[in-house]
Amino acid sequence: MDRIIDTILEFVEPEEEITAESTLKGDCGLSSFDTVCLLDALCSEFGKNVDEISVRECQTVQDLADLFLD
Amino acid sequence: MSTKTLANGKTVETYPLTQAQRFMFFVYKQFGNNSPVLNIGSGYYWKDDFRADLLKEALEEAIARCDVMRLRFTLENVNGNMQVMQYLVDDAETKVEEFDFSDMPYEESYEIMKGWTKQLIPMFDCPLNTVRLIRLADGMNGMYLKFHHLAFDGYAAKTFIADVMAIYLSKKCGRAYPKPMKSYYDAMMDEFKYLDSDQRKADRAYWMQFFSNESEPIFNDYLLEGNRLRKARKENPEQRFVSLYEGDHPESRTLMYEVSKEDSDLIMDLCEKKGLSIPCVLMLGLRTALSAFNDNQEDVSFKFMINRRGSLLAKKSYGNRWHFYSLRTIIPPDLTFEQAVAAVEDAQSAVFKHCNFDTLEMYQVKHIAMKAGAITNTGTASYDSMTFSYHAPLDVPVENEEVKASTIGVWYNNDFSAQNMYLTVKHRANDNGFEFIFEYRTCENSAEDLKVLYPKIIESIMLGVKNPQITMGEILEKIKL
Predict the structure, then answer these.
(1) B306 and B439 share a domain?
(2) Which residues on B lie below 8 Å from A10 (Cβ)?
(3) The pTM is what?
(4) To the nearest 10°, the Cα dihedral for B447, B449, B455, B461?
(5) Which end of chain A is more exposed for a tag (fewer CB within 10 A), N or C?
(6) CB contact under 8 A, B353 and A10
């Protein structure tokens, strides 16, 4: 989970600490463009290909982690 | 990279323009006709127990934290060709001057600052920016900023305002001093690294493949009476593009429409509730209106601006990162509004993934890949009648809700445009509601054209927002001309 959060923090500086329950758009403030760039970074970080439609369906950091950490 | 010796004897490294700067400069040379088209003028004003001394300090500190303020352009002979290069100097030389317009009507001070915006910025080997502390009538105070578009885009300008306000409020209210900004130099180096990267080769291959496989798009005009494709088709019934910029006159005007706070909130609430992208909802509104103007055409394209600010380095290093790509969507009438927003988002995401590929090169690839006859080589042929850009709200710190309610952000139009028709959607500073700003070249457009277009855009959006399951066919029926 820390690697997921650290990667998110390369893209945004939210006022509140990011947790697994943080929402990607609301709490983290990720835009559509951020999300496309984040997906690219996570795929490199975890050496895994995840399609963007799955990422777009993610609401929270935990949802995102489930895609990369299973 | 090469070097240049400055008047003070110091030698500095010079760098080529980035891809985004090259495109902006190309458009300026091609269609700007040596006008002040690259001047960005903006103002930010509010009513509080004003501390001019602290704002001046904040402006000076924000300038010192912003290395783009130290950016200069120069002309250099590169292999026999004069090229625009850029370099950084040690001292920004941007002085904060104070102007007091408190005893004159707002309209009068507006015209003065608009006049400042229209004054050409000397481009080579000198400071490019103007920063002024302003007192307006009715106790409104703030700042006037003028930037060169090769050094700042709209996002960068707003980032600068946010930094100034964070510093001002740290001094005035004891809030935490804002974190440091990022380095323009580092961001520029990142841009250059991309030029030799495998990613660029992959992006080029993607666009080559994309355009080779793509069917020919079709031009959708926002003009009703003077529909340019219908006119062109009298000579060639198969034609699908139009030549724009036939008159080399960059003079432009703007027309602004304000969406009410209530309607703006409805749009944003739906986006939050359904996880929809705000710009995609707005772009769906635009493409639906264009469809209605062109016999309910399902295949609609327009250019859209991508500010390419994903990483914190890109977000906090100022500069100009804008790339312009065509957004093409084919939306059948049986799709619901919600499904159509998703279709726009799919198209947008596909472009986002490959949008670091520079715009000028992309057009060359498009010309190579598309079959002969599809595009003329005049450089003015287009399938996109207009350009769209969305400026997301950027959190500018405010002292309290009362001060926020008084705050206004002003864009001083320079009355020139290198684009034929440019729709920018922004958020108001005081209540976050939408502003639709149409900037149009007067030689090819009139305000009358927009008085039909805008209501159709907003009507189609509100129909979908109030009933996301309505089909696009039903929306087109309700907004039909």
Answers:
(1) yes
(2) 311-312
(3) 0.93
(4) -110
(5) C
(6) no
